[in-house]
Design goal:
- This protein is α+β, with helices and mostly antiparallel strands.
- It contains 4 helices and 2 strands; from the N terminus they run H-H-H-H-E-E.
- The protein starts with a helix and ends with a strand.
- Helix content is about 60%, strand content about 10%.
- The protein has a two-stranded antiparallel ribbon.
Length: about 110
Amino acid sequence: MTTAGEQLRLDGQDAALAAATVGHHDHPNHIETALTELIRSGREFSADHVRDAVPPETRDWLRAGNGNVLSSIIGNASRRGHIAQTGWCQPARKERHSNPNRVWKGAA
């Protein structure tokens, strides 16, 4: 059973993913592919690693106000048990204002 706050977060992630599929682009699939490759690598990674692994046009799309799609895809992978949090890291991107990122690893 989820709390009301958790349910609102889940609903928001679902809404972000639904909105991201509107239009003629494949950015969510590029993000999913990059995430899958990082999971299969067996190495730890953060959202910044996923962002670095997508094509430049997808990075531009994320920067243009669609960054919540990346966190939603990562959140879904976590809920499905595909990844597990292993720690925290400081992102290098100025846009993050030194807010910590979770570090993830593929779940066995």
